Amino acid sequence: MNRPSVLIAVLVAAIVGSVAINVWPFLALFSASEAAFVLGLGVGIVLLAWLPLLYPVFMILRSKPQQPWRVRFVGVVGSLTYGASLLVATVVGVPVELYLVHVAPQLQAMGEPVGEPVVIAAEFVLSYGWIAAPAVLSVASVVLTRYLLPRWPAVVSALGG
User: Fold this and answer.
1) Taking the CA of residue 142 as centre, how many other CA atoms within 13 Å lie in the half-sphere pointing to its CB?
2) Fewest Cβ atoms closer than 10 Å to its Cβ: which of 2, 6, 46, 67?
3) Taking the alpha carbons of 130, 132, 134, 138 in that order, is the dihedral positive or negative?
4) Residues 95, 41: Cα–Cα separation, whole Å
5) Rounded Cα gap, residues 81 and 92, in angstroms
């Protein structure tokens, strides 16, 4: 096994171990098949949440010819992925939350229609949006990595590296 493969294997083992340690006390409450499902679901969610860093590492180590500033590439893709996801969540979430907190109760108090299906859908998205966050981060990571990887040597040369 070459060195990058060992590093990736150690990182994945650390992630799986952290999930197992946090979930272990609760696994006694389930049957064996339910415990395996819960543990697998936890590992899957954690791996999806770490994908914005794992996927660029995998792609930069696999690229031929070897890319310059490999660690910075991973940092840039991770930062862009998390930053873009947070920006979208803020741009969508803040106006919806403001409507739910300030506008909808006033309209309801005046007897006006508040758009009940819209309010129900917005409350659902705001309450359970964290479930979709790992999938959104994963898609954003793959898209940004595939977009930046071929352009990375030009970025490095423009920065004087």
Assistant:
1) 7
2) 2
3) negative
4) 32
5) 17
**Percentage of the chain exceeding pLDDT 90:** 19
pLDDT digits 0-9 by tens, 52-63:
888 999 898 888
- What pTM does this model have? 0.70
Condensed to tens digits (0 to 9), the pLDDT of residues 127-142 reads 888 788 888 888 899 9
Distance CA 63, CA 25 (A): 42
Q: Please state the domain count of the chain.
A: 1
> 130 lies in which domain range?
3-158
Helix (H, G, I), strand (E, B) or coil at 161: coil
Query: Tokens in use for 64?
Result: 């031929």
Q: Which two tokens stand for residue 23?
A: 């979930």
In whole angstroms, give the CA distance from residue 120 to residue 101. Answer: 13
With CA atoms as reference, report the closest residue to 107 among 99, 117, 96, 95. 99
Which of the 8 DSSP states describes residue 83?
Answer: H
